[in-house]
Amino acid sequence: MTPLRLGLIGAGRWGRVCVRAIQALAPRVRLSAVASGNSETAGLVECPVFPHWRDLLGAGLCDALVVTTPPSTHAEITVAALGQGLPVFVEKPLTLRRDEALAIKAAAIATGLPVMVDHVHLFSPAFRHLLTLVCRCGPVRTISGQAGKPGATRADASVLWDWGAHDVAMCLAVMDQSPHAVSARIAERPAYADGMGEIVELELAFSSAIASFRLGCLPERLRRFQVECDGGMVVYDDLSASKLCVNGVPVAIEAAQPLTVALSEFCHSVRDGRQDMQALELAVNTVDILARAEAGLR
Hints:
Blueprint: E1 4-9, H1 13-24, E2 29-35, E3 49-50, H2 53-59, E4 64-67, H3 74-83, E5 88-91, H4 98-111, E6 115-118, H5 125-137, E7 140-148, H6 159-175, E8 181-188, E9 191-192, E10 195-196, E11 199-205, E12 210-216, E13 222-229, E14 232-237, E15 244-246, E16 249-250, H7 258-272, H8 277-297
Parallel strand pairs: 1-2, 1-4, 2-3, 4-5, 5-6, 7-12
Antiparallel strand pairs: 7-13, 8-11, 9-10, 11-12, 13-14, 14-15, 15-16
């Protein structure tokens, strides 16, 4: 089988993680080109490196693209790539604005090409098993969680968009509906040596359940998502040795890296010419909910 040629746009911290994940999919997949303004990138890959993403698009070296640039650039790059006939795997959040998210959705529909958003926890075997367990233990009564780490906020994405995108996407996957009310508030602004941080409390009200989260520059690194159902408590803890527990009892889960799972599924969709519009709609709804929450913080 001829390897699927993936181009990478953006070679920052997460872009370099994607390089390793793509390499793990060899020989079915290979990294064929990279667009990066970082002079060190050429030493990290064995493929052509272009200084600008438009140069990569025009080179004709790729069958599909992986986009790991700042979220404010996602819409322009993704729509342009679709216009060139290239499916796109894009880092979360899809965009920072609802109109841009809708433009990507419209371009995907018009071209018939796959667009997959890397809400990476949705590809975790532990979280996917949580969805099965919640169906058995439901109905859902409350969802809660904590996610973050010490340190100043990112320059290119606020706490809501950086951390909240994961939790909102997971909530939508669990509830299979949009919340009727969204609220957020800045709970704390801790100071760090590298700048100011923020801790945001986010609440989503669904028809039969409330979801509440504490996100951002927390005193310790956390990624915990728990679902209380009539039939028990199901907890996904990505940083624990036991990533999934039911009523405090660990559940055995297959060992697989979520990013590798996501990229592998994206490559299958590209080869099959198959779109997952339900997943893209979830990504668009995630942008909408975060935009509503952000508006409440102003």
